[in-house]
Amino acid sequence: LLQEIIPTISKMKLYYEYLGPTILSGFDTYKYSSKDTSPLSEYVMHPFWNQVVKICPRWVAPNLLTFVGFLCCIGHFGLLALYDYDFRSATAPPGQSGLPDLPAGVAVPSWVWVGVAVLLFLSHTLDGIDGKQARRTGSSNPLGELFDHGLDSWATIFITGALYSMFGRNDDGLSVPLFRMFCVFWNIYLCFLVSHWEKYNTGVLYLPWGYDFSMVCSFVMYLATAAGGMGLWKVSLPGGFTSAQILEPACYLGNVGLTLPIAIYNIRKAYKEGTGKNRTFLEAMRPLVSTLIAMVICFTWVLRSPNSILDLDPRCLFLLTGTVFANICCKLIIAQMSNTRSELFSVILIPLALTVFMVLVMPGMTAGRELAVLYALTGFVILAHIHYGSCVVAEMCDHLHVRPFHIKHSSAKENTESNGIANGKKGN
Length: 428
Known about the structure:
Helix content: 55-70%
Distance between the termini: 20 Å
Strand order of the largest sheet: 1-2
Number of strands: 2
Strand content: under 5%
Order of helices and strands: HHEHHHHHHEHHHHHHHHH
Largest sheet: 2 strands, parallel
Number of helices: 17
């Protein structure tokens, strides 16, 4: 698919050089460095992936594994969108909610939940073996890591959005309200951003413990939903809370309570020991500015919307915010890999800001018009992000003299293969 998109962009004269020679030259000296200390990763996931990658034919390009895994991630989100677009399928029946006037939601079929679980499992597995396949075939290069992490940044919306369908809106008082879920999305975006901000300042990617744990738990929860039904998550637990109401603060605790403090500690340690980039405070904080501006703009729209846009179409709004974030985060990943200065203000914020301003000040903004604006902006942002990603991949391929889904034959040594399979999860 991507190999068809890139030439098409060139033929239509839509190609644009987003990187330039300075950034591209920075990739020439790049070396991947990461630390994964998670017990789940070390003792369960990596041994499993080490066996799975042996099944994969050597002619399969690592980036193809990454891309197919990402498509599976979109698929598990899209499958639920077909059956539960407005997040109301999980609404509890009157006998459970205590609201006689609130009808129960139309439950998502069990086979759909099985399909969602399988697609998530495939996505996680392919994401786990892509780097191992690269080292196994001697085809590691900076494009692989950029491709992997860039798609991971976009996957945050699809993984989190699919999870919300298990619990649904809070119409029945047994889940998490839409606005609080909107806050959870931004909490997850910031958690992902912090990991790459940390690498921007230390040169080392410290893989968060929560990623593999959340993926495994989600897989188990989807299978449990297929077996026990969506009402399983509406049962009152000790203390009078439901599963969703417990997972919400747990998400904040794991991200804000652990990921952020640990990242700050690692950055401070790198500065003290002289192993980091040793940037000034303002330069070190520079990568956070665009995401924080995007967050302010999006929250302004949600809170000041004349028609409660979040209630009208939460799924589309989630997709919009996730795509904006992914675009901003990709540029941070490029900056930290090429050891260049991170941008201060992302261009993707301009249409976002102008649109929100128009919605808030234009008189006669009906619900239908505001939805039309949301759909138009989301479509534009998605196309802009795909264009950005396709052009960046084309630039990288031209610079590195490689093709995105083709393995360049190499005389890699056997010890490279054995070491490559055993070490690391990310980076091709």
